Amino acid sequence: GGIGLYLARSVKMTAMPQLVSLFNAVGGGAAALIAIEDYLTRAQVGGTIPLDTNIFVVLDIIIGSITFSGSLIASGKLQGLVPGKPILIPGGRLVTLALAAITVVAALVLFATGTPNVALMVVILAAALIFGITMTLPIGGADMPVVISLLNSFTGTAVAMAGFVINNPVLIIAGALVGASGAILTKLMADAMNRSVINIMVGG
Fold first, then answer.
1. How many CB atoms sit inside 10 A of residue 141's CB?
2. Alpha carbons 52 and 20: distance in angstroms, whole number
3. Which residue in 38, 39, 33, 63 sits closest to 117, CA to CA?
4. What's the angle, vertex CA 62, arms to CA 59 and CA 68, rounded to 5?
């Protein structure tokens, strides 16, 4: 809390977008850690995980991890630590599609079996983290504000998922508010640029 207060008070207004993106990363990472801790605890206890709980845990890990790594890249682009121009990875789209496919298949296996599988959970975590990077790198610095707004919406959604995981209504409500308002803001920003959100995200 003290570090956050210091950063918020000392940051220059021109550097505010990258600070917001950094805070997005912290929020998404924290939400993902809640789900990871819950999953590891259930794995130690053994038995099966109810489908409704399993869905929220896995979605929290996926969305939170994508937000964490994607927000760090976005913040780095705005700060100049990562080149602001679109960085195209050879076969990047295929890599991103492969990561998405791996994540979906692994998640479906976890949903179908209901048995805790830490190895598959680690695969999902790694794929989501890399996906966040490969999704954000090809987008130019000029589009980063829209990307940050979208990732902010992801953060709220991940927090809401974490609320379902630990049965906390405050997290569910706060996360839903952030997720919905972030999605609306993203749409408004894209409309102001006379482009669609999809066009911005896959433009690179």
1. 16
2. 32
3. 39
4. 130
Residue 4 has a CB neighbour count (10 Å cut-off) of 12
User: Within a 13 Å sphere around the CA of 193, how many CA atoms are in the beta-carbon half?
Assistant: 17
pLDDT for residue 197 is more than 80: yes
Q: Is 67 a residue whose pLDDT tops 90?
A: yes
Nearest CA to 92 out of 135, 142, 151, 127 is that of: 135
Distances (CA, A) of 82 to 13, 18, 74, 155: 20, 12, 8, 22
* Angstrom distance (rounded) from CA 132 to CA 65: 7
Joined together, the tokens standing for residue 42 give: 């259930």
Buried-state track 76-104, b at ≥16 Cβ within 10 A, e below 16? bbbeeebeeeebeeeeeeeebeebbebbe
pLDDT > 80? residue 203: no
Residue 197 CB contacts under 8 Å (≥ 6 apart), including other chains: 146, 150, 186, 187, 190
169: exposed, middle or buried (C-beta count within 10 Å: 0-12, 13-18, 19+)?
exposed
Number of H helices, E strands in the chain: 8, 0
User: Is the pTM for the entire model greater than 0.85?
Assistant: yes
Are the C-beta atoms of 17 and 149 separated by less than 8 Å? no
